[in-house]
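Sequence decides. Our protein:
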Amino acid sequence: MFVVVKLVSGAELVAEMTSSTETSIVLKNPLQVVYSSSSFGIPAVTVQKFCPFAKQEIYNFERIHVMCINEISDASVIYYKEAVESVSPGKETAKDSQMFSKLSKGSIVH
């Protein structure tokens, strides 16, 4: 099931919920929703990896940290799947690869 999850921290995640119990939920490839507006004041919604530097795809959340869970629309599922594909390993740009290389060597990136 594909869901949007609102955490008590305020973070809003879109993900595939692979399991749910009374005490926890498991999300696969969670993407964090980011709200912004353009320089012209036009609202925009984008998504980014929940933990951008983590290799893992599966995250366990205790229900005490979850405010609500709602299933997303079919159109949103299509957008989510395309977004996950675009942030999957191997999809980095040359600049991303250079930055990650510097980070792994302990260099400071500006």
Q: What stands out?
A: The longest strand covers residues 24-37. The longest helix spans residues 74-87. DSSP finds two helices and six strands in the chain. Residues 2-104 form a domain with the SH3 type barrels. fold (CATH 2.30.30.100).
